[in-house]
UniProtKB/TrEMBL annotation:
Highest taxon of the lineage: Bacteria
Gene: prpE
Protein name: Propionyl-CoA synthetase
Organism: Arthrobacter oryzae
Family stated for the protein in its record: Belongs to the ATP-dependent AMP-binding enzyme family.
UniProt keyword Mitochondrion, yes or no: no
Length: 632
């Protein structure tokens, strides 16, 4: 018997992938167990477990009830916004999901149909996801901070048979009415007749009854017949999750059923060291991939208890909120974004509030969404006294590419590194020509094909875009879009993006999409948006615009208008609050704006002006503009 440790697992996953993943697949319930692991018949588009059939919702719910754990907590809803808590056992959650699946079915949703879910952090969001999966339908959750235009773009692309929403979301400073946004989005998408199911929440102005044909969640639930899980092929899609690309058009990442269930289940035990009955709290939002994988599917597939938290790390009511939740629910693993830890540290530098709470249940803190900077890593390690594990992944991969697998080994943790590649990920760092670089040298981080189970299978309805966005740059590899280096021990250090995607408070945003909005203003001749280093949010977007000649507008008025436009068209989540009018933007002779050089100047980093620059004088003019902006 070979010892179960990181090195053996990783090597086996590469040398004997079929055996490795079929063993992992044994831990899932199948209606038709797979005999095959990898399907390479459509390479470079790969599939996993092509002859297997199962249902993800059954695996996340019913099978735990069947195993006698129906009375155990499946989901704990903790709303710091409302000051309430609600617990759902596996039996209760299964019944609610089956009933809501019946509601969806009665409105025509069947296998393969799409359901768009636009909801705040309430249990019904998870119920709607699991109910969609129960029918073999495909959900697409849209983060509540996105504006109607962004929601419309996703509705247009996914063409849903139904939309599920709630009256609104609660932010510390205001209540956000969802129903007008949904109505506007459906009108913009040209599909106003789509059935809309509304979970009513108190304290919001708009009601389902204001819209002809819109349906009330509770009324529908009372009348529904519960639906049984529908068998799907492992390769059938479970969800589409739209994420920012370099252009304004979001990319619809497609996740399958079987591969995802197998991979997530593997991670629960081996990376997070979470098993049946343990409590995992992922402080994210169901609108992001982290929420899909580790608020909803991962913990439930493992038979654990998941905490769904509606609140912030600070201000709801104070910087002790996270410690309070850990104490109240005996949380074993907390997973959050570094920006949340920095927000707590800023408000309570010595973590004095931690003394008020018994957090002894906590075994490990995991961080992802952006690089865990070394200061925050040391601070969190010191105040909590538990291992703090950075792990690196993307919407596209669905689970960690690099991590420190706490259930397998006690590998050393190195500050600033998400550690080592997980099974199935053939990690390389390559130069622009695709050649491997030496340890310690920064390059493009790429993954050899095929990717492991659970990763994206394509982009929704657009195989060509999948290939051109990810597989075309380096032959035989998936390009992550991140750059970094590996040290002598094989630990990865992720340094940043190689494209125009930025990361604001753990939220992935496209500067290209913001530029598209700015470019629509009649006074703007051209513009650039770059991500500047920000001590709290990691990065923040900053816009630079050149005016059309002869326009009569003050920089202040224009700034206000542009900020409002980005908020209206993309959403508050873009956090776009800085615009500067400049004489000119630095460009190459072929017209490409030198955004990277601008960012390096603004952040005070070393910069090299490319020899292809059109007018080097523009850089000199910009230095005075960019540098003060960075220090604000
Ligand atoms: N619906 C509507 N609006 C939302 C929203 C939602 N679900 N989430 C955020 N917003 C709005 C906020 O209200 C804010 O609006 P404002 O400009 O009117 O103030 C704006 O979007 C920016 O929000 P946010 O990025 O949350 O900034 P903040 O200053 O309010 O809070 C932090 C800062 C660090 C506390 C907060 O960003 C945070 O908790 N981050 C963790 C992020 C995270 O978990 N990411 C998941 C990735 S793993
Ligand atoms: P998202 O798709 O929203 O999860 O964002 C993925 C991107 O966020 C990655 O490509 C990285 O640029 C960044 N990212 C996520 N986690 C980490 C991490 N642990 N370290 C460094 N960058 C990260």
């Amino acid at each position: 018997m070979v010892a179960r440790n990181y090195q053996n697992s990783y090597e086996r996953s590469l040398n004997e992938p079929d055996g490795f993943w079929l063993d992992a697949a044994d831990k899932i319930s199948w209606s038709t167990p797979p005999r095959l692991a990898l399907d390479a018949s459509r390479a470079p588009l790969y599939g996993w477990f092509p002859d297997g059939a199962m249902n993800t919702s059954y695996n996340a719910l019913d099978r735990h009830v069947a195993a006698g754990r129906g009375g155990q907590d499946a989901l704990i809803y903790d709303s710091a916004m409302l000051g309430t808590q609600q617990r759902f056992s596996y039996a209760e959650l299964t019944a609610l999901v089956a009933r809501f699946a019946g509601v969806l079915r009665s409105h025509g949703v069947g296998k393969g149909d799409r359901v768009v879910i636009y909801m705040p952090m309430i249990p019904e969001a998870a119920i709607a996801m699991l109910a969609t999966a129960r029918l073999g339908a495909v959900h697409s959750v849209v983060f509540g901070g996105f504006a109607p235009k962004e929601l419309a773009a996703r509705i247009r692309d996914a063409a849903p048979a139904a939309v599920v929403t709630a009256s609104g979301g609660i932010e510390p400073s205001r209540r956000i009415e969802y129903l007008p946004a949904v109505a506007e989005a459906l009108a913009l998408a040209g599909t106003p007749e789509t059935p809309v199911l509304v979970k009513a929440r108190e304290g919001f102005a708009a009601q389902a009854a204001d819209h002809a044909g819109w349906l009330d969640w509770e009324t529908e639930m009372a009348a529904a017949t519960p639906a049984a899980p529908v068998d799907v092929q492992a390769t059938d899609p479970l969800y589409i999750l739209y994420t920012s690309g370099t252009t304004g058009a979001p990319k619809g990442v497609v996740r399958d059923n079987g591969g995802y269930a197998v991979a997530l289940n593997w991670t629960m035990d081996n990376i997070y060291d979470i098993g049946p009955g343990d409590v995992m709290w992922t402080a994210s939002d169901v609108g992001w991939v982290v929420g899909h994988s580790y608020i909803v599917y991962g913990p439930l597939l493992a038979g654990a208890t998941t905490v769904l938290y509606e609140g912030k790390p600070v201000g709801t009511p104070d910087a002790g909120a996270f410690w309070r939740v850990i104490r109240d629910h005996r949380v074993n693993v907390l997973f959050t974004a570094p920006t949340a830890l920095r927000a707590i540290r800023k408000a309570d530098p010595e973590a004095a509030l931690l003394q008020d709470y018994d957090t002894s249940s906590l075994r490990t803190l995991f961080a992802a969404g952006e690089r865990l900077d070394t200061d925050t890593f040391h601070w969190a390690s010191r105040i909590l006294g538990v291992p703090v594990v950075d792990h690196w992944w993307q919407t596209e991969t669905g689970w960690a590419i690099c991590a420190n697998p706490r259930g397998l080994d006690q590998l050393p943790i190195k500050a600033g590194s998400p550690s080592v590649p997980m099974p199935g990920y053939r990690l390389s760092v390559v130069d622009g020509m695709g050649g491997d670089v030496d340890a310690g040298t920064e390059g493009n981080i790429v993954l050899g094909l095929p990717l492991p189970p659970g990763t994206l299978t394509t982009l929704w309805g657009n195989d060509e875009r999948y290939v051109s966005s990810y597989l075309a740059a380096f032959d035989g590899y998936y390009a992550t879009g991140d750059s970094g280096y590996r040290d002598e021990d094989g630990y990865l250090f992720v340094m940043g993006r190689t494209d125009d995607i930025i990361n604001v408070a753990g939220h992935r945003l496209s500067t290209g999409a913001m530029e598209q909005v700015l470019g629509q203003h009649p006074a703007v001749a051209e513009c650039a948006v770059i991500g500047l280093a920000d001590p709290l949010k990691g990065q923040r977007p900053s816009g630079y615009v050149v005016l059309k000649s002869g326009v009569d507008v003050t920089g202040e008025d224009l700034g206000r208008e542009l900020i409002a436009m980005v908020r209206r068209d993309i959403g508050a989540v873009a956090d776009f609050k800085h615009v500067t009018v400049v004489e000119a933007l630095p460009k190459t002779r072929s017209g490409k704006i030198l955004r990277k050089t601008m960012r390096q100047i603004a952040d005070g980093d070393e910069y090299v002006v490319p020899s292809t620059i059109e007018d080097a004088g523009v850089i000199d003019q910009l230095i005075g503009v960019l540098r003060p902006a960075a220090g604000e």
